[in-house]
C-alpha cells in the first residue's frame, strides 16, 4: 500500500482541526511562493505520535501501541531538473536556511552525527531513500519549506515526523513509488544516522496510523501493523497530553539515557541466551523469549503467561540478588555473557557510545518483560472490553509508569508530579510517553472530565513551575487529543 494522495484536508484532520489547519497550509504555500519565486508541487505530511503503552520495548522486538496525533511536520516541495541541489528552509526562523548537494550514489549525502543540526533529520530521509533508488540516474534538485508543529524534545516524536515527511518528500519528488512498509523500514534505519539508536515505533505510527484507531505495531519476525479500536464507554474515553516542559532531547542525553538502555537490554538478552541455553543466542529479548518457548506444546503457550514465566526464570538466573543492586561492571557482563569486554564495546558501544560504570540488567529485564505483557493486556482489553475496561486500561498505564520510574529510570520528578496531579483530578491512568526523562505524559480520562483535568494541571503544575507562561503557551502544553491519521501527500491547493 502506498501513502495516500489527498486533495482536501478533511481526509487528513479531524473536522475540529480544519479551522487551524486550512490557514496553516495556505500560509505555507504563500511563504514558499514568496521565498522561491515558484509554487510548490505538493506537500508531504507526517505526524507525531503519542504512545499509549509499550515504552522502550520496540528495540527489544516487542510490540507497542501508539497512535498518531494532529501535530505534524508538513513540507512544501518543488523540484527541478536543472541541478541536484537541495534547498531547505523552515517557517520557524530559529532554524536557518540550509543547502546541500547530492554527493553521488555511494554517499548520497554526508551526515555529521556529532553535530546537533536540524537539517540532519532531512538528510536522514534523503539519504535513506536515495541509497535504495538504484534505477534513478540522478535525483531532482529540490526546493523545500518546512513547518513543524510537534514540539521538539517533548516525547511526541518530532524527529520521526520530520524524517518520515522528508523521506516521503524525496519519494514523491523522484517518483520512487515506494510502499508504506518500505518508507517506514527505510526511515527507521535512516534516523539512526543522527546518532540515536532508536527503535521503530515512531516511524510506524507516523506512517501507518488512521483516524479513530490506535496502532498495534509488531516487529518480529517482521514489521506488521494493525488497527485497534478503543473501547466505546459512556461517557466516552479521552486522552490528554501534558508536556512537563522539561526538554529531553534524545540526541543530547543519548550516551547516559537512551543509547545506554538499548545496550543494557542487549546485554540482558545475551546473558539470558547463555544462562537459559537458548539454541539461537540473540541480543533481542523478544527473540530469546520466542526461542525459549519454541518447543513448548502450543496448547500451553499463552503470550502473557510466557512473559511472566520467562521473567521468573530470568530473575533466578542473574547472579547477585534479584533486586539488581547497582548493576554490573563491563567486566562482570563479559563474564556473564561469555562475550569479551572488547567485543561488547566494539559491537554495542562504538557507533553509539555510552557513559556509565554499571549496567543495570536485572531492572531493565523486569521492565521490558512486564511492559511487553502490559501491551498484550491493553490490546486484549480494547479488543474484548470487559465491563470495567476503562479502569483496567488506566491501571495498566499506571503500572507502566511505575515500572518506567523504578525499573527503567526513565521518568523524572516533573513527570511523576504531573501524573500524580492527573490521577487526583479525573485521570484513571497517567504515564510518561516516548523516551521519557522529561517531555510529555499521556493520561486517560473521560470526555466530561477533560476540562477539569486540564484546569487542575494548569493551576497545580504549570502556574507553580512555569508562572511566566502565556495562556497560549499553556494551551500548547496541555491538550486533549484523538487518534489521528498517518503520512499523506497533499495536493489540494492552487498550483
Ligand atoms: C523513542 C524512540 C522509540 C521508542 C521510545 C520509547 O521515541 O524513538 O523508538 O524506543 O523512545 O518507547
SSE pattern: EHEEEEHEHHHEEEHHHHHHHHHEEHHEE
CATH class of one domain: Alpha Beta
Bound ligands, each once: alpha-D-galactopyranose
Largest sheet: 7 strands, mixed
CATH architectural group of one domain: 2-Layer Sandwich
Rg, Cα atoms, Å: 23 Å
CATH topology (level 3) name of one domain: Ribosomal Protein S5, domain 2
Helicity range of the residues? Answer: 40-55%
N-C termini distance: 27 Å
Count of DSSP strands: 13
State the shape: globular
EC number: 2.7.1.6
Organism: Syncephalastrum racemosum (Filamentous fungus)
InterPro entries: Galactokinase, Galactokinase_CS, GalKase_N, GHMP_kinase_C_dom, GHMP_kinase_C_sf, GHMP_kinase_N_dom, GHMP_knse_ATP-bd_CS, Mevalonate/galactokinase
Pathway: Carbohydrate metabolism; galactose metabolism
Could you describe the 3D structure shown?
β4 and β5 (98-101) form a beta hairpin. Helices cover 41% and strands 17% of the residues. The chain is an alpha+beta fold and 495 residues long. The chain is globular and about 70 Å long. Among the domains are: 5-229 and 484-490, Ribosomal Protein S5, domain 2 (2-Layer Sandwich); 258-364, Up-down Bundle (de novo design (two linked rop proteins)). The model has no long low-confidence stretch (mean pLDDT 95). It is built from 16 helices and 13 strands. A seven-stranded mixed sheet has the order 1-13-2-3-6-4-5, with helices on both faces. α3 crosses α5 and α7 packs across α12 (361-383). The structure holds alpha-D-galactopyranose. Alpha-D-galactopyranose binds at residues 51, 55-56, 58-59, 157, 198-199, 201-202, 434-435. It catalyses: alpha-D-galactose + ATP = alpha-D-galactose 1-phosphate + ADP + H(+). Belongs to the GHMP kinase family. GalK subfamily. Residues 390-462 form the GHMP kinase C-terminal domain.
Amino acid at each position: 500500500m502506498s501513502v495516500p494522495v489527498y486533495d482536501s484536508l478533511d481526509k487528513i484532520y479531524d473536522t475540529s482541526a480544519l479551522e487551524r489547519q486550512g490557514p496553516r497550509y495556505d500560509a505555507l504555500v504563500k511563504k514558499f511562493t514568496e521565498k522561491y519565486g515558484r509554487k510548490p508541487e505538493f506537500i508531504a505530511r507526517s505526524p507525531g505520535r503519542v504512545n499509549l503503552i509499550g515504552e522502550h520495548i520496540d528495540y527489544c522486538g516487542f510490540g507497542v501501541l501508539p497512535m498518531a496525533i494532529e501535530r505534524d511536520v508538513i513540507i512544501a516541495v518543488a523540484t527541478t531538473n536543472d541541478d541536484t541541489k537541495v534547498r531547505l528552509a523552515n517557517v520557524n526562523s530559529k532554524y536557518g536556511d540550509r543547502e546541500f548537494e547530492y554527493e553521488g550514489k555511494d554517499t548520497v549525502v554526508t551526515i555529521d552525527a556529532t553535530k546537533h543540526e536540524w537539517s540532519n533529520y532531512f538528510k536522514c530521509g534523503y539519504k535513506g531513500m536515495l541509497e535504495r533508488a538504484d534505477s534513478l540516474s540522478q535525483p531532482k534538485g529540490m526546493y523545500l519549506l518546512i513547518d513543524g508543529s510537534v514540539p521538539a524534545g517533548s516525547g511526541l516524536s518530532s524527529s520521526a515526523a520530520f524524517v518520515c515527511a522528508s523521506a516521503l518528500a524525496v519519494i514523491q519528488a523522484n517518483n520512487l513509488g515506494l510502499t508504506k512498509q518500505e518508507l517506514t523500514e527505510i526511515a527507521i534505519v535512516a534516523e539512526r544516522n543522527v546518532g540515536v539508536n532508536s527503535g521503530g515505533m515512531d516511524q510506524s505510527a507516523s506512517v501507518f496510523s488512521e483516524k479513530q484507531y490506535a496502532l498495534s505495531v509488531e516487529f518480529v519476525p517482521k514489521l506488521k501493523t494493525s488497527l485497534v479500536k478503543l473501547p466505546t464507554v459512556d461517557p466516552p474515553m479521552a486522552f490528554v497530553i501534558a508536556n512537563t516542559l522539561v526538554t529531553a532531547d534524545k540526541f543530547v542525553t543519548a550516551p547516559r539515557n537512551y543509547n545506554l538502555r538499548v545496550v543494557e537490554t542487549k546485554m540482558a538478552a545475551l546473558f539470558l541466551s547463555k544462562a537459559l541455553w537458548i539454541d539461537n543466542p540473540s541480543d533481542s529479548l523478544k527473540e530469546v523469549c520466542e526461542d525459549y518457548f519454541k518447543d513448548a506444546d502450543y496448547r500451553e503457550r499463552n503470550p502473557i503467561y510466557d512473559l511472566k514465566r520467562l521473567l521468573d526464570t530470568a530473575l533466578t538466573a542473574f547472579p547477585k540478588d534479584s533486586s539488581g543492586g547497582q548493576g554490573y561492571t563491563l567486566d562482570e557482563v563479559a563474564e556473564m555473557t561469555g562475550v569479551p569486554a572488547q567485543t561488547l564495546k566494539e559491537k554495542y558501544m562504538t557507533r553509539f557510545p555510552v557513559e556509565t560504570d554499571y549496567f543495570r540488567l536485572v531492572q531493565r529485564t523486569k521492565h521490558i518483560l512486564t511492559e511487553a505483557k502490559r501491551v498484550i493486556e491493553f490490546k486484549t482489553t480494547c479488543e474484548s472490553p470487559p465491563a470495567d475496561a476503562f479502569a483496567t486500561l488506566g491501571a495498566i498505564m499506571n503500572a507502566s509508569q511505575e515500572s518506567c520510574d523504578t525499573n527503567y529510570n526513565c521518568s523524572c520528578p516533573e513527570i511523576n508530579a504531573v501524573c500524580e496531579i492527573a490521577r487526583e483530578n479525573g485521570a484513571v491512568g497517567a504515564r510518561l510517553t516516548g523516551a521519557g526523562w522529561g517531555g510529555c505524559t499521556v493520561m486517560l480520562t473521560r470526555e466530561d472530565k477533560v476540562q477539569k483535568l486540564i484546569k487542575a494541571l494548569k493551576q497545580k503544575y504549570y502556574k507553580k513551575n512555569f508562572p511566566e507562561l502565556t495562556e497560549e503557551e499553556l494551551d500548547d502544553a496541555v491538550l486533549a487529543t484523538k487518534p489521528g491519521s498517518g503520512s499523506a501527500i497533499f495536493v489540494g491547493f492552487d498550483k
